[in-house]
Amino acid sequence: MSSVEQTISTRRDAGSGALIAYLPIGFPTLDESVEAAIAVVENGVDILELGLPYSDPVMDGAAIQKATQTALQNGFRLRDAFTAVERVRAAVDAPVLVMTYWNPVMQYGVDRFAADLKNAGGAGLITPDLIPDEASEWMSASEAHDLDRVFLAAPSSSDVRMRQAVEASRGFVYAVSTMGITGARSDVDAAARGVVSRLRDAGCTSTCVGLGISTAEQVRDVLSYADGAIVGSRLVAALSEGGVPEVARVAADLASGTR
Amino acid sequence: MTLRDVVGPYFGTFGGRFVPESLIAALDELDAAYQAARVDPAFAAELAELHRTYTGRPSIITEAPRFAEHAGGARILLKREDLNHTGSHKINNVLGQALLAKRLGKTRLIAETGAGQHGVASATAAALFGMECVVYMGAVDTERQALNVARMKLLGAEVVAVQTGSRTLKDAINDAMRDWVANVENTHYLLGTVAGPHPFPTMVRDFHSVIGTESREQVLALTGRLPDAVAACVGGGSNAMGIFHAFLDDESVRLVGLEAAGDGVDTPHHAATISRGRPGVLHGARSLMLQDEDGQTMESHSISAGLDYPGVGPEHAWLSDIGRAEYRGVTDAEAMSALRLLSRTEGIIPAIETAHALHGALELGKELGPEGIILVSLSGRGDKDMETAARYFRLLDGEGDAPAGSAS
Q1: For A134-169, what is each residue's pLDDT tens digit?
Q2: Contacts (Cβ under 8 Å, ≥6 apart) of B6
Q3: Is B282 close to A69, i.e. CB distance below 8 A?
């Protein structure tokens, strides 16, 4: 069982589920992004999803786009991702997944990326624009380096594709809560329940819901049927507005939804 | 299998579907509808009738003897897509996709546009079919193409000025995809070139293949043989794939794509994706693209907004890879000179995009000599480029170039 699955299962056995925090690497600076990641774990986050800034992030809404663009303007380089993962892992014990669009991995070299991520202490990848159908190279590299691979399942996914996502994923399946992109929403779609229940029917034992979750109440609600809740834009907004202290405060508040 | 029979999703190692899972159902639905339409005589008949009565097809070919004097005496034949309704080849694809969208029960069309030609064509189709239309256009482009923005609005479309990223065409595509992910139930994304995830590269090519099918017959009828070379400009590559496709299995015919070399392919300011790009994933497909070492997309440069794109359709990447087509760079200066030459020798003002192909034809003519026959895709007319051309040639401030004779 991978460290991510282990963490999720421990939290589930304790009667709740995991809180997963997305933060972009290099925003507002590389140092502060590392401090923010450490701070949210110290305030109740179970698993980190560190985002790799990319020039064309089609799955991301305005808040995250703006942050990753800032990181790129500040000179973010791919190698910084491994440094960041290493520094976070040295400070806290939470598993660290990297969220990345596919082209940077392809350019770095899929196997080389996997090796360097493993060496840095990373747990695996979440790949928003890589579907299992196109992922053969990543499947072999992740097997070879013992890394998790998180694929997405959407409300529009067919039963066949749900099953495919369950079979191809390791760690968890990312249940997309709504037809849309990242960003806080006042109510997480009822669609999320449907996706999770269909994933369960396909044999899924580990699924976390993301997109649109921004309050402790939503976290609690999601954890009543899923194994984890993923929060991104809300934390990025907090980091933009009030720096590390504010993102720590918001993380602690969100974590109250896991109790 | 012949080259013409390759229908994706892969062209060699290029193509595929690198998109969020949320879009897969829509792509599957579109692919199924397209496969059904492809073999449905009623669909073909409806599209052909629209082209006859609305687009103005078949488009003619025009021989350009005075222009050809500058091309080593080779015969140059122009396939006149500039005479189509809305002024370019773009309408071929737009009407095909709008018909498909109607079959799928979609009520809303979204599109990206750089210079505005595809946006205008999409807004036109939406008006014709009574559909809602939203066009995403980089804020940089809405500023420099204000007239086309007005045109789209007059046709009833909403134009969204995209403020993200580099605020140009590539970001307009990103925003259109974000819109599509959220509104896929009632919305069709009318992608304007042979790029993007499958089935777009195949489908858009097929809708434009009428350019090559018509002109292959027209050249045969006029000259009694196939041309020695076919030249077309390549940004995303839709008019080029459209005219190349009919000739893919005619081994004697050279297929030459002309890319925008901007200030020169050895400068940082160009859009020569095939000449200078590396394999990568952009906008849903694996193809060639301009990118830095980390795989971040680089900004392209061309005087022609329609070629100012850091990616290219996967079928072109493949045709280059297997050596079936060749791709060359044409600088801004070379294209503008060819634009002026065609205007003055033949009375046809081409789009700046098209002028890249015309420069290519001049060079090819010199290589082929007087026995050569070159078919050129005259993909669009230059009306939209008057402001750029007037500035470039300083025609409005009273110190422009000489009014007559200077073309020879």
Answers
A1: 999 999 999 999 999 999 999 999 999 999 999 999
A2: B315
A3: no
Ordered DSSP codes for A139-151: HHHHHHTT-EEE-
In tens, the pLDDT along B108-123 reads 999 999 889 999 999 9
Helices marked H in B262-351 — which ranges?
A: 273-276, 314-321, 332-346
Count of structural domains, chain A? 1
Interchain contact, B170 vs A56, CB within 8 Å: yes
CA distance A34 to A25: 7
Nearest to A2 by CA among A165, A162, A118: A118
ipTM of predicted complex = 0.96
Chain A: closest CA distance from residue B170 (Å): 8
Question: How far apart, in Å, are the Cα atoms of A246 and each of A22, A46, A250, B223, B279?
Answer: 15, 18, 6, 75, 42
Which of the 8 DSSP states describes residue B297? B
Give the residue numbers spanning the domain of A79: 3-258
Torsion of CA A45, A50, A55, A57, to 10 degrees: -50
Q: CATH number of the domain at A253, please.
A: 3.20.20.70
The rounded distance, in Å, linking the Cα atoms of B210 and B233 is 17
Which residues are CB-contacts of B350 (< 8 A; sequence separation ≥ 6)? B82, B339, B342, B343, B358, B378, B380, B381, B382
pLDDT digits (tens, 9 = 90+) for B334-371: 999 999 999 999 999 999 999 999 999 999 999 999 99
A174 CA: distance to closest CA in chain B (Å): 10
Q: Tell me the pairing of strands B14-15 and B61-63.
A: unpaired
Catalytic residue check, B293: no
**Residue B407 DSSP SS3:** coil
Known catalytic membership, residue A134: no
Q: Which two tokens stand for residue B134?
A: 């939203």
**Distances in whole angstroms, Cα of residue A257 to Cα of each of A48, A227, A231, A249:** 17, 13, 12, 14
Task: State the pTM of this model.
Answer: 0.95
